[in-house]
Amino acid sequence: MTNKIEKKSYALPIAMMFALFFMISFVTGLPSPMGVIVAKQFGASNFESQLGFLANFIAYAFMGIPAGLMLKKIGYKKLALVAVTVGFTGVGIQWLSGQVGSFTVYLIGAFVAGFSMCMLNTVVNPMLNTLGGGGNKGNQLIQWGGTINSSAATIVPILVGYLMGDVAGRTIDKASPALFIAMGIFALAFIVLFIVDIPEPHIQKVSEKKVKDTHSPLSFRHFILGAIAIFIYVGIEVGIPSTANLFMTALPSAANPGLGIDAGTAGIVVGIYWLLMLVGRLVGASVGAKISSKTMLTFASSVAMVFILLAIFMPVSTTINMPVITNTFSFAQVQVPVNVLFIILCGLCTSIMWGGIFNLAVEGLGKYTAAASGLFMVMVCGGGLIPVLQGFVSDNFGFLSSYWVMFLCLAYLLFYGVIGSKNVNKDIPVE
After folding, report:
1. Given a cut of 90, is residue 4 above it in pLDDT?
2. How many CA atoms lie less than 13 Å away from 374 in the CB half-sphere?
3. What angle do CA 121, 127, 130 make, to 5 degrees?
4. Could you tell me the CA-to-CA distances from 237 to 114, 274, 319, 376, 383 in Å, in that order?
5. By mean pLDDT, which of 207-211, 250-254, 304-308, 396-400 is the weakest?
6. Residue 378 maps to a domain
7. Would you state the pLDDT for residue 139?
8. Rounded average pLDDT over 306-312
9. Which long-range contacts (CB under 8 A, 24 or more apart) does 309-314 make?
10. What percentage of residues in the chain have a pLDDT greater than 90?
11. I want to staple 379 with a disulfide (CB 3.0 to 4.6 A). Which of 44, 222, 231, 365 is the partner?
12. Are the beta carbons of 129 and 358 closer than 8 angstroms?
């Protein structure tokens, strides 16, 4: 009887977690097209244009552990309500930056929004893993959530690119409708979250005696290496399309020459990267119960390394026509160097990495899973630091050469999938 009740209660919480996955991606994806905007509106370099990501993701370093502690103390629902309120505020500040014409205000807004994304990630990942029962099925549910995540990521660069239009239209004010959409999503989510009942498997009861553990998630080697893998992965996921967007929109006459493609078209091309992530996550979700996370991560990182090498070494003069959907919702073809194609194809590989790494890193942690999720969120700051590093390399050595940063990062993920993910600390009690 108890099991039936529990199963019956899972559908709506899972749907809510999927909705939060959408929100995370929508807001987190904004710094990519916004980087193109600030490069034009504020004359930012490639390095400076990535500071929106840095501001957004560095918040994870400050909020990751507190979010994990809040999860244990106040539970999923209350933490999610706090998160969406903070998220609404952060996006509102970014909109305000367009009104006052301040790059600093924009960075503050991205930083505040980052706090929200950290808290939401702390909620959705362990929740979906728990509802899926851990193991391959937990990974499968996270992959389905990732599919929803990718749908939002696909929309953001296309929408903001369309709103920007030509070079003269690259202003935060022009992108305001996208910010209003994000604020609306937060407002709606708050209402739904307030109403819906959410299971609280990790909330710490007041009556519970606090027993000091002699161990922590950091006692597990595979978790430590997995946390590093998450740091690197988020940087890969963000850096690959963001630098591609800058490469395509930079003028051929610039100090660091680009392709001179208009922002709308470039946004659509970048959107294909996120669309491929969606496709990859659909495939990952469908086979996640049959194929291990280790196999999926090893295969994906290996293929991505091949794509990056091809992108670096193929001549820019070799072009290919990519099919895109125009702002009039008709099919067209845009000519781009084949390098861009290989960069975009990486979306198929990065699609399944988050769920695989998370699942491998928390496997066998038991009671330490909630705390591990908080530590995980600290490491998400890699999404801000690694793209900035890539931006610095691109300023000094060119856009394509900067993808060596991505290659080295992918090499580490391959190591983690093959060797680093093995749990060598099974003697530690986790009940």
Report:
1. no
2. 20
3. 140
4. 16, 10, 24, 16, 8
5. 207-211
6. yes
7. 61
8. 96
9. 309/407, 310/338, 310/339, 310/342, 311/339, 311/340, 311/342, 311/343, 311/400, 311/403, 312/339, 312/400, 312/401, 312/403, 312/404, 312/407, 314/338, 314/339, 314/342
10. 20
11. 231
12. yes
Residue 9 banded pLDDT, cuts 50, 70, 90: low
Q: Let me know: does 250 contact 36? Beta carbons within 8 Å.
A: no
Q: What is the dihedral of CA 237, 243, 248, 249, to 10 degrees?
A: 120
Cβ atoms of 371 and 222 within 8 Å: the answer is no
Indicate the range of 33-47, 344-358, 413-427 predicted with least confidence: 33-47
Amino acid at 420: G
| Token output for 365 | 């942690």
pLDDT number for residue 335: 82
| Total tally of structural domains belonging to the chain | 1
Asked if residue 170 is part of any domain, the answer here is yes
In a domain, residue 206? The reply is: no
Q: What does the pLDDT read at residue 98?
A: 78
* Residue at 202 is within a domain: no
Where in the sequence is the domain holding 396, given as residue range(s)?
2-197+219-420
